[in-house]
Structures are given as C-alpha cells and as structure tokens.
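Response to reviewer comment R2.3. The reviewers asked that we include at least one raw input/output pair. We reproduce the pair for FBD-associated F-box protein At1g78730 here without editing.
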Amino acid sequence: MVQIVNREDRISELPVHIVYDILCRIRRYGLKEEARTCVLSKTWSSIWRSRPDVIINQSIHNSFMKSTEKFIKFVDDSLRPYVEQNSRVETLRLLCLHDQELASHIDRWLNLVIKLNVRSLEIYAMFNLKYSVHEAICAAKTLTELSLRVCNFQIDNSTSTTNKLQRLISICMLIRDLKISRCWGIQNLLIFGLVNLEKLELRSRERLEKVEIQAPNLRKFVYVGVPLHNCLKAREPKLLPCTIDILDVFIRKIG
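Raw output as returned:
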C-alpha cells in the first residue's frame, strides 16, 4: 500500500520580497530562465507577471531582432497587468532598441509607466533608431533614477537654447541618480534645484560648451567628453574645453 504524504508548498509560502530578489538574481541568466520560474507554482507565476521592475532587452532574443511586431507585443503584454490593476511600475528599462518604427511605441510605453508613477527609468536606444525624447517624460515627477543613452534632446522647430533635458531637470525634482550617455541636442547644461541629486554622469556624443551644477548632496560626478580623435577627424576649428562649474557642493570619491 502506497502512503501519500501531504507536503507543504514551501516555495509558494516564500515572502513576496524574497521571490522578487530571487527573480532579479535569475535574470542575469536571461529572460527565458526567469520566465521558467512560472512553473514552480501558481503563486510564482502571479508574482512574476506583476513584478515591480520591467527590464526588457530587444537584443536578448533572436525573435525580437527578426520581428519588431513580436517585440512590441511582448512589451505590451508585460505592461498590461500593471495597467489593468493600476499598480505601480517601480522600474522600466528598455535596452538595445534598434528599429526606427519603435519610436512611437516607446512614447506610448513611457506614457503608461509615467501614469503608474515609475521611479526608475532607463532608455537605451541604438544609433540607427535616432530616438527623440518625448515631451511626456517631463510629467514623470516621481522619478528618482533616470538613465538615457543615445537619445535626442533637441526641441523640434525651435531656435530656443533650452533643450528637453533642461526642462526635465527643472520639473523632476526627486532625481537622485542621473546618467546621460552619448545623447545629442545638449549644448549647455545647467543643473539647479535638484537637492536630492547624488550621482551625475555625463558622457558626450557632441561637444558641450558649459556645464553648471548646483546640487548640495552631490557625491559623484563623472564627465567624459568627445574623444580628441573625433574632433580631429571633423577638423573642428575650435577645440575648446568644456567649462564645468560645481557650486557649493562637496565631492568625495565613492569606493
């Protein structure tokens, strides 16, 4: 006679924050490996679909590179549960975005997560996408972390020297960590009023003329200018250094 022993489902009983931590650790091995955790239990499946951080890399799966439609559907499906439940998206990271037709969809996804009070946002567009940052990002007043790579901050059909990044800085006052890498449309950058700003990284694609920073809690500042060999190739007549002024802050090295 076979005796059936009822065993407790210890996996399903794990606290939600521990499950989230496990999922984050598994993610380094790829989205497919993370998704496989759904078979562990119905609880894990539900938690995976409603995890507070949405991190999607277009280049991580061959089918996404071959079919933009599949990638768009995947992102839509990933964000739909948050919209339906009106639950917060803590983090949205859209990485290695390639196709030009994604631009309008990126704008739409940004609008969705901004309404859901996103706190951490990263957009990494590839050079062939030529993504122009949408004005809607200025409504993201809950942002504490922002990373934008290979994006355009120019204001279309405008002769104003104020770029979209300048507008964003003046509105999103809670930002603690700001990274701008290889973007264009930024000639001068004035950072005032970000009393929570602790980390600032600027990596230029084109030459900046002036950066002025007033952030009382700034602890780390990294600036990487345009490589000299790029300037020489372009035969730029004025190889003037960028002027950087840091006002009333104490900078210390973070180990």
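The first strand starts at residue 53 and ends at 57. Helices lie at 16-27, 31-35, 42-49, 62-66, 68-85, 103-115, 164-171, 228-234. Further pairs are available on request from the corresponding author.
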